[in-house]
Structure formats: structure tokens, C-alpha cells
């Protein structure tokens, strides 16, 4: 099952004399919801994701997951990166088992690993060395390893960007489906607008210098999403317009960033 995430007035700078990288970010993400984050390069998307994962602590504000303030990484909050981060000297089955071993969930380890490999369609590769797998298959192994521990949250930092278009599309649909089936809360950072619209219940558009939430677009499309459909095209246009706005400088620098509620209101009123 998933957990809700609350981002509360989150601000960050890496050193006290540096400019702020993130400024007053606030957002509530419901348990089991899927939120995609897009924004210009350098706007602070990865920094934000690291804070959700407990890998970086904010200079001000806080992140709460399931009501608890995030202060360190937790096995229940799983992060997946562009590179799958597998151990090449272990085979597929052993890599998938790692998370379970680290968290001491070894009772039904064999069955759980087999279930996860079946889920990501790699049952026949259980004994294969990692080096024999394609990039997409390696990401599936990383996904199986993440899912094995029964995570509440999966944080994805451009996880499919190194893959070919066909594999990328399949994984977008599969990960989205699995997260929905298992009620896992998903936060995805991406540069790919179609990926954001394929996987997100909402898409957050960030502005930069400092990073702020400039707008939030609810994606009103049934799953599985198909970029070829006209309704998808209309959402793409709406999101592109918001992205263009986010790149434009803010008119009144001293004003606080709009909250997601303001942004949704703005959308509802056209
Ligand atoms: N460890 C660090 N120390 C100092 N500055 C950092 C550090 N990590 C990131 N930054 C700065 O913080 C800002 C945001 O970086 P971040 O990687 O979060 O952006 P991003 O939106 O994920 O970028 P991209 O889309 O290019 O991956 C950038 O200006 C970057 O140079």
C-alpha cells in the first residue's frame, strides 16, 4: 500500500552563502497517487527527489511521508535512477533478492523473488548474468528489486531516458500499471512531456532560479494512456503552454510561488 507525501514550505541551498536552489515548495500527494515533475534543466527536480528519499535534508521546511518527517532514507521509499544500479557479479535472481536481504525479509525470499520476476516478465532470466541483459531488462530487474520489499513509495529520476523509444514506452505503461495495482505512491522526474502525461495523475511544472512549483496540471485521461489519442494531444498542448510559462521569468520576483491550489484554480478557470 502507498503512503501520502506532504511537501511543506520546502526551501534549500547547498551552502549558506549560495543562492536558494528551491524556494517554498508545498504540495500534498495522496496515497497511491502518481505525480510527474517537469521543468528546465537545473530547476532542482533531482534535489527535490533526493529530499523525498531522505538522501538530502532541506535547509527549511519539511517532507512528511505517512505523517512522519523524512530525516533519512527508508526501505519503504524506493528510488530508481537512470542507471539501474545492479551488481554485475550477481545474477538476476540474486540482484532482486538484495533488497529483501538488506531489510531482513528473508522468510519467503525465494517465492517473493520468483513472483517479482514473473511480474516484470523476466522469469526465464532468473539465473542469467546481468551483463547478458538489455538496458530495458536491467531496468526491469531494478524495478523487481524495488517492488520486492513492498514499498509505499517509488521515486523515479528519469529512469527510462537511456532506453530506446519502444522499450521506454512499454516500461512507462508497465510501471504505471503495477503502481496502480499495488496502490504505490509514485513520484517521477522527467524531461519527457509524453512520459509525464502517460504516467502522472498530475503533472507539476517547476520554474528555476530558484526552483518553485509554477503550476500543477491534473491529467484527466483514462489509463492506459495513449499519446496518439486527440485528448492526449490536447493535454500535451496545455502542458507545453505551462512549460513555456515556467521558462519565462517570474514577473514579480518577490511574490511567493503560486501554491498548487492556485494553479489548479487557474486551470479550472482557463
Ligand atoms: N551537491 C550540490 N552542491 C551544490 N550545488 C548543487 C548540488 N547539487 C545540485 N546543485 C545545484 O542545484 C541546482 C539544481 O540541481 P538539480 O540537479 O536538482 O536540477 P535538475 O532540475 O534535476 O536538473 P537536470 O534536469 O539537468 O537533471 C543546480 O543549479 C545545481 O548546480
Automatic annotation (TrEMBL):
Domain ABC transporter stretches: 5-233
CDD domains: ABC_NrtD_SsuB_transporters
Key words, A-Z: ATP-binding, Nucleotide-binding, Transport
PROSITE patterns: ABC_TRANSPORTER_1 (PS00211), ABC_TRANSPORTER_2 (PS50893)
Residue stretches in coiled coil: none
A Pfam family matched in the record: ABC_tran
A GO term for molecular function: ATP hydrolysis activity
Family that this chain belongs to: Belongs to the ABC transporter superfamily.
Protein name, per record: NitT/TauT family transport system ATP-binding protein
Organism: Alkalispirillum mobile
Amino acid at each position: 500500500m502507498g503512503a501520502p507525501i506532504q511537501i511543506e514550505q520546502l526551501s534549500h541551498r547547498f551552502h549558506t552563502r549560495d543562492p536558494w536552489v528551491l524556494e517554498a515548495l508545498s504540495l500534498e500527494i495522496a496515497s497511491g497517487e502518481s505525480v510527474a515533475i517537469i521543468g528546465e534543466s537545473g530547476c532542482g527536480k533531482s534535489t527535490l527527489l533526493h529530499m523525498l528519499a531522505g538522501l538530502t535534508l532541506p535547509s527549511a521546511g519539511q517532507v512528511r511521508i505517512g505523517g512522519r518527517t523524512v530525516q533519512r532514507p527508508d526501505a519503504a521509499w524506493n528510488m530508481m535512477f537512470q542507471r539501474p544500479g545492479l551488481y554485475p557479479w550477481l545474477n538476476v535472481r540474486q540482484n532482486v533478492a538484495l533488497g529483501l536481504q538488506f531489510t531482513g525479509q528473508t522468510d519467503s525470499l525465494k517465492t517473493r523473488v520468483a513472483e517479482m520476476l514473473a511480474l516484470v516478465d523476466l522469469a526465464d532470466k532468473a539465473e542469467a548474468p546481468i551483463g547478458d541483459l538489455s538496458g530495458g531488462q536491467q531496468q526491469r530487474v531494478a524495478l523487481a528489486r524495488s517492488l520486492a520489499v513492498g514499498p509505499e513509495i517509488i521515486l523515479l529520476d528519469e529512469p527510462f531516458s537511456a532506453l530506446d523509444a519502444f522499450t521506454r514506452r512499454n516500461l512507462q505503461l508497465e510501471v504505471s500499471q503495477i503502481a496502480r495495482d499495488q496502490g504505490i505512491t509514485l513520484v517521477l522526474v522527467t524531461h519527457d512531456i509524453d512520459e509525464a502525461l502517460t504516467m502522472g495523475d498530475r503533472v507539476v511544472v517547476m520554474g528555476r532560479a530558484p526552483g518553485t512549483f509554477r503550476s500543477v496540471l491534473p491529467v484527466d485521461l483514462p489509463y492506459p494512456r495513449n499519446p496518439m489519442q486527440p485528448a492526449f494531444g490536447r493535454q500535451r498542448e496545455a502542458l507545453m503552454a505551462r512549460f513555456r510559462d515556467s521558462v519565462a521569468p517570474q514577473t514579480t520576483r518577490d511574490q511567493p510561488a503560486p501554491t498548487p491550489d492556485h494553479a489548479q484554480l487557474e486551470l479550472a478557470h482557463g
